[in-house]
Amino acid sequence: MRRADKSRIISCLDYLEKELPFLAEYEREVNWQVYQTERSKRLEIERWAESLINATLDICKMLLAVGDEEVPETSREILFKIGSFIFDMEAKAEAFSELARIRNTLAHLFTQPVHESKMGVKLGDTFLGICTFIKPRA
What we know:
This protein has one domain: Four Helix Bundle (Hemerythrin (Met), subunit A), CATH 1.20.120. It has eight helices and no strands. The protein has helices spanning about 5-20, 20-30, 30-35, 40-65, 75-85, 90-105, 105-110, 125-135.
């Protein structure tokens, strides 16, 4: 792995680790009612979630590229491919790939408790799993 690639991956991982503590704050402060009625809080959370997903997607693309793997065309396929390496069950890899859809339809994410996708996968656990899996290998 080139030094520049490693540096970029670690930078994205550091970003995820720095941002994840805000999840607990959002869980305490925001429920569906707050999300619907407080536009500034809704936009803040949506930007935050989208940034986490985008950083995760960047990491996945870089890992596939530096590993001489074919990089699929869609974000969902990219996330599924990396998810298949990380998670031991196909259902978890499929749930991980849902981040691509969530990124495009963030409002649906918040119809469940603030931090869970429709698949029941906790985003905090998902992002921490990525950091735990990838950082020691970078």
